[in-house]
Amino acid sequence: MCGIIGYSGICSVMPKIVNGLSALEYRGYDSAGVAFFEGDRIRTVKSAGRIENLKAALGDLCENENIKCGIGHTRWATHGEPSSRNSHPHGTERVMIVHNGIIENFVELKAFLADKGYSFESETDTEAAAKLIDFFYGESKNAVDAIQRARAMLRGSYAVCALFSGEPNRIYGFRKDNPLLAAPHEDGNFFASDISAVLAHTRRFRRLEENEIAVLDSKNITVLGADGCSVECVFETESRTQDSLEKCGFEHFMLKEIAEEPRVINQTIKSVIKDGLPCFDQGLFVGAEKIHIVACGTAMHAGMLGKYVIERLSGIPVFVELASEFRYRNPILGKGDIVVLISQSGETADTLAALRLAKAEGARTLGIVNVVGSAVAREADNVIYTNAGTEVAVASTKAYSVQLAVLFLLAVDLGHKSGKLEDSAAKAYVEALLKIPDAVEKMFAKKDDCSAIAQKYTNSKSIFFMGRGVDYALSMEAALKMKEVSYIHCEGIAAGEMKHGTISLISEGVPVFVFATDNRLFEKTVSNIKEVRARGARVVLVCNEKMDVPEGIADDIIRIPETEELFATLVAAVPAQLLAYYMSCHLGLDVDKPRNLAKSVTVE
Ligand code: F6R
After folding, report:
1. Which residues, in sequence order, are CB contacts of 258 under 8 Å at separation 6+?
2. What average pLDDT does range 380-393 have in this prediction?
């Protein structure tokens, strides 16, 4: 989703902005722009499409040594098409802003401003916020006052960086519900919506709180509290380095990140094992009667899969829901209920809203989060980090796998603590989990088979994915992954549900990819395969190594290395991800940055 970088310093600003925006590309965007000071005049350059287009539009300005302060933005269109007119920055000769988030009352604000003589050039909500600040700046000639008065009228979410023509080489930043960081460096100071934008320069940063305004120039970063007085500015240090944002010899980030799964799963499992058992701080779950898992997209699919395993091992009922539904449903939460929010970014707007709602309803909350210090991590009562490292490819892979690993560990822990699993049984499950990284590694080694299979289906109009139980949950994720990066229509279906409607779409040659790692349900799934094959489907079957597969049931079989059956989906996720990856490559698509998608969905 949108990205922000700002810099004021002693160096030329444009390379810093362009490189910073490139580092934010992974978040997804469809236009980009910059605003900068030329003397005390603010100038903007914008363009639709990729950062390369912005660079071309900037021309010689890219090299201009005299320009030392500016703000840059990558826009993921919400209000108005992706065009240079709608791309940020927006504002006036006096005030220019870049904005992440959505101003919900922009129609109302535009009417207010139109009444004061303002007109609008773009279709964006951001332009209303910019002109509102300009209006108050016109009255008081004081940037902080203008921001505070405008902020009192803004509804929605925002991270904003602003330039004021009366204050050359100074940048103002403020936020609500969207992250914004101020980061110091000896050559100048930065604003960024995400530390990745500035990791090439600094790992130190200060997260802005919601009621603060930060002001930076080439020498200082000043943070003002709600009363306008300066507050202490203590910097944190990011543990990741610039290396985590490199492809390290892989052709794409998505493949690199799938390849990293054995290491990150291993790391995650080992980090929570003590004396052969998972050791979470589980005060939270004492007396838990129900668990609600709330998340979006891939994270929700991890929750769907976790439900089967947690219920089986602990006997605690688990309900899984999309955060965008949960937040507006008036969910009925009992006293003993735990709400678990799963999120790679920890910034997903709906997940964050669901967390706040759950807390307001008095539920206890746990965040399972990848990005350290993100909003969900900070606001949840408890947090478990997934430690997958930076995920750059827009389509989530290693973060999903580590979310599964954490949910499986939690299932063992809850089963053990509830008395449903004896010590020896819990330890045996942990032993089995410790073998998973090896199996994942072996599975990854078969990547060429996945490539060859994907090649056979590049002409498909639709692909169906089906399975039962945990394999149904995995089918949902496999379908999402495939559609995200291949743009082929895909559906994930519970195998037993196929004949209740979707089978009408099966005809000669339609591909059905089947996951069948749960041996107890294998025969049932075979019956479903026969039903689709009888109607001409071409079948790719993913099953366990030793499974006795009836002759002629599938066109291709991907066998996953032997593992504890209850956790086998963690291994089967690899071919699900690789099939999607190779399909996208064979189709010549931009696998790391699929069209229209954003990595961190910070708007509803
Ligand atoms: C799919 C994908 C998305 C995210 C979803 C939630 O590959 O990445 O479906 O899973 O937007 O994001 P997080 O986990 O950051 O809350």
Report:
1. 397, 398, 444, 574, 577, 578, 581
2. 92
Evaluate whether 354 touches 341 at the Cβ level (below 8 Å): yes
Q: State the catalytic residue, choosing from 2, 161, 450, 543.
A: 2
The answer to whether the bond into 82 is cis (omega within 30° of 0) is no
For residue 601, how far is its CA from the centre of ligand 1 (angstroms)? 8
Q: Whole domain around residue 86: which residue ranges?
A: 3-239
Output the CA 194–ligand 1 centroid distance in Å.
16
The answer to whether residue 28 is domain-embedded is yes
Number of structural domains (the chain) is 3
Mark whether 278 and 347 lie in a shared domain: yes
Torsion sign over Cα 174, 352, 494, 450:
positive
**Nearest atom within ligand 1 for CA of residue 600:** 15
By percentage, how much of the chain surpasses pLDDT 90?
Answer: 82
Q: Note whether 177 and 265 are same-domain residues.
A: no
Instruction: Band the pLDDT of 282: cuts 50, 70, 90.
Output: low
Q: What is the CATH number of the domain that holds 108?
A: 3.60.20.10
Q: What is the pLDDT of residue 373?
A: 83
End residue of a domain, out of 207, 239, 271: 239
Average pLDDT over all residues of the chain: 94
Whether ligand 1 lies within 6 angstroms of the CB of 351 is answered as: yes
| For residue 242, pLDDT beyond 70 | no
Which pLDDT score is estimated for 599? Answer: 75
Whether the predicted pLDDT of 203 surpasses 70: yes
Q: What is the spatial distance between Cα 393 and Cα 28, in angstroms, rounded to a whole number?
A: 10
Question: 480 and 563 share a domain?
Answer: yes
316 and 420, same structural domain?
yes
Mean pLDDT value across residues 576-601: 92
Q: Are residues 96 and 132 in the same domain?
A: yes
Q: Which residues 6+ apart lie within 8 Å of 150 measured at CB? A: 129, 132, 133, 135, 136
pLDDT digits (tens, 9 = 90+) for 135-159: 999 999 999 999 999 999 999 999 9
Residue 233: pLDDT over 70? yes
**Active-site annotation holds for 2:** yes
The minimum-distance atom of ligand 1 relative to the CA of 348 is: 16
- Which of these three, 192, 212, 239, is where a domain ends? 239
- Indicate if 426 and 486 belong to the same structural domain: no
Q: Is the CB of 298 under 6 A from ligand 1?
A: yes
In a domain, 183, yes or no: yes
For the purposes of burial, counting CB atoms within 10 Å of the CB of 207, is it exposed (0-12), middle (13-18) or buried (19 or more)? middle
Per-residue pLDDT for 224 more than 70? yes
Q: Which atom of ligand 1 is nearest to the CA of 599?
A: 8
Q: Is the pLDDT of residue 243 over 70?
A: no
φ, ψ for residue 61, nearest 5 deg? -60, -25
